[in-house]
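Input chain follows. Return structure tokens only.
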Amino acid sequence: MGETAVDLSGHIEATPISVDSKVSQFQRLFHVPTEIPDFKELIKQSSQKVRPWMEFLNTGNFKTAPSVPRTAKRIKKNIEYFYGNYIFVSLGLVIYCLITSPLILLALAGSFYINRYVNRCYESKNLKLFGLEVSKNQRFLVVGMLTMPILYLVGVHAAIFWVLGASFMVIMLHAAFYNIEAVNPSPETEALFGEEV
């Protein structure tokens, strides 16, 4: 067999993709906030976006999607529509985890009490450790570091991963099977899903 020569010359211009464009695409897709809100502010914002619970829990609206791409679009639309409800479902799972794990609750209460005690005692005067002055933020850090082994022993790490896994499963199952097209018909939904279901 003879050798074949292939001409591979040419000019390719690669357009670099910046990290900012990837972040902005992700933020446009899921409406990710740029700053982490305060916990009270998050609850206030979420409670304003809560849809009626009877609509959220209506079992008559649970149906399987006809295809996988349609399921992905349904999940995205449901997460946008029921965002506040999903936040409260996750908070409910956190509360359930704390109530059913008294050692974790006791360890967290002890940590908060020690933090409050240290800050109250040294509010007007500075705390000195090993001859060094400790600021308020450093006090929080020291108390946190001292309580980490106790929190690890009582199983906080397992509780955190349980809450994350349970929240993810509950939210994804609800978002995948809840027929948002029937509940919230809009031109955007019809354009997104094509024909009516």
